Task: structure prediction
Amino acid sequence: MTLKVISAQAIVFQGEVESVTLPGQIGAFTVLPGHATLISSLLKGKIAYTIGGERHEQEIAGGVVDVDRDVISVCIY
Result:
């Protein structure tokens, strides 16, 4: 899957990941390969993603995520 994390100032991260966990409005949720299409607002918290079995995290103040065909696009603020 491809994860793109962008802010108004820059591309924060763009690359291939194995999974992504996001802080959704009704709780954290994880996106895995083949996930259904969705759009969700995000709360303050952490985006956690796995690359080669290694976990990485990015603090966010909130944002929006779009998941479509194994591309996770996250716009943060």
Q: What stands out?
A: Strands lie at 2-6, 11-16, 19-24, 27-31, 38-42, 45-51, 54-60, 63-68, 71-76. The radius of gyration is 11 Å. The mean pLDDT is 97. The chain is about 0% helix and 70% strand.
